[in-house]
Amino acid sequence: MNKEKSNYQILLLPGDGIGVEVLPQAVRIIRAATEFYDLDIEYSEALVGGCAIDEYGEPLPTATLELAKVADAVLLGAVGGPQWESLPMQQRPERGLLGLRSGLSLFANLRPAMTFPALARSSSLKLDLVSGLDLLIIRELTGGIYFGQPRGVKVNQGVREGINTYVYNEHEISRIARVAFDMARKRRGRLCSVDKANVLEVTQLWRDVVTETHAEYPDVELEHMYVDNAGMQLVRSPKQFDVIVTGNMFGDILSDVAAMLTGSLGMLPSASLDANNKGMYEPVHGSAPDIAGKNLANPLATILSAAMMFRYSLEQPAAADLIEQAVQATLDDGLRTADIYTPGTTKVNTLTMADNVLKNMSNIFQSGLR
Ligand code: NAD
User: Fold this and answer.
1) Whether the CB of 256 sits within 6 Å of ligand 1
2) Do 33 and 64 belong to one domain?
3) In the chain, what is the greatest distance between 2 CA atoms, to the nearest angstrom?
4) What is the pTM of this model?
5) Ligand 1: nearest atom to the Cα of 78
6) Residues 246 and 122 in one domain
7) pLDDT tens digit string along 160-179?
8) Omega before 150 within 30 of 0, i.e. cis
9) What's the first-to-final CA gap in the chain, in angstroms?
10) For 146, which of 31, 195, 268, 319 is 20 to 30 Å away at the CA?
11) Within this chain, do residues 143 and 238 fall inside the same structural domain, yes or no?
């Protein structure tokens, strides 16, 4: 994307449940950032997930996908809820997300795990293991065992047999490896590639291709790790990692392990990128039907997803830094939504949390600290 560009199109997909509460708060933050940095953003909005099923009978209407294709970035709240759970698998709200990922060729999923100092005590691990933690997991999102053919369950001589196929070709591997090396280069220069090369031939190929791609990035330090060891190291000593790259299934599992290191689901952003850094940005959490409509949801994961959008798709790192610093300042002020509340801090609702992030953005911007 052109670095000189300052006008962008963003598609907003609030979705279901708390998605419709947290996404507007992130939009307020985006609007403030565009004013500070003199950017021009055009917004469109569409339906995805359960609300699209109710309106159009399908979780990803063609019109939504078409709008997503022309946008520079997509910001999504969450989809799903109990009222759609009895539908057949192919018609459920979550299929809308899968359709967006494949329709936009979003093959690189970025899940940062960062501990905010004010929240380090919420982690299930000891404070010294997680304070200052800042790692990025990059998961291949459109291949591997989740998509390989043949797949299914059949009856073989009266016995039920399930099969899935773990397949990657070298182009898929080098493509995700390049994303990971590029990210490592912009961070602390270290990449750990996770595989199971001692057992699975497909991941021996993964290891070989990542090693070959490393020749293009001599300034990045590369190590390989088996997935069982990586799981253990993530809870033993997570700060040893800078960037981790791995396949779809291992990434799914390891990113949830890493998520727990940071304390709360309500704090975790994510990005899914295509080959041109066009992306879909969304909180890791779901639609939280248990608290939906009550102004209780933590908006910070969605606000931090908006910061990732500024960093990766819009290439406006100063706006991304400002939002992240404002979130940190708000937590330092002691404000907490119910999910991250601890005695001695101030419990606030969705709106008040976002109000305070806005206030801190303005203060930080005007004080010229950044
Ligand atoms: P969930 O993430 O919605 O909720 C899990 C727990 O965390 C709940 O107690 C919820 O109240 C809490 N929580 C989640 N986000 C929060 C926030 N921002 N602030 C405060 N508390 C928060 O997961 P679930 O309950 O397993 O799933 C609910 C629905 O969401 C299901 O229909 C599921 O399929 C869907 N889902 C969607 C996505 C997505 O849209 N990307 C991801 C996961 C689950």
Assistant:
1) no
2) yes
3) 74
4) 0.91
5) 40
6) yes
7) 999 999 999 999 999 999 99
8) yes
9) 24
10) 268
11) yes
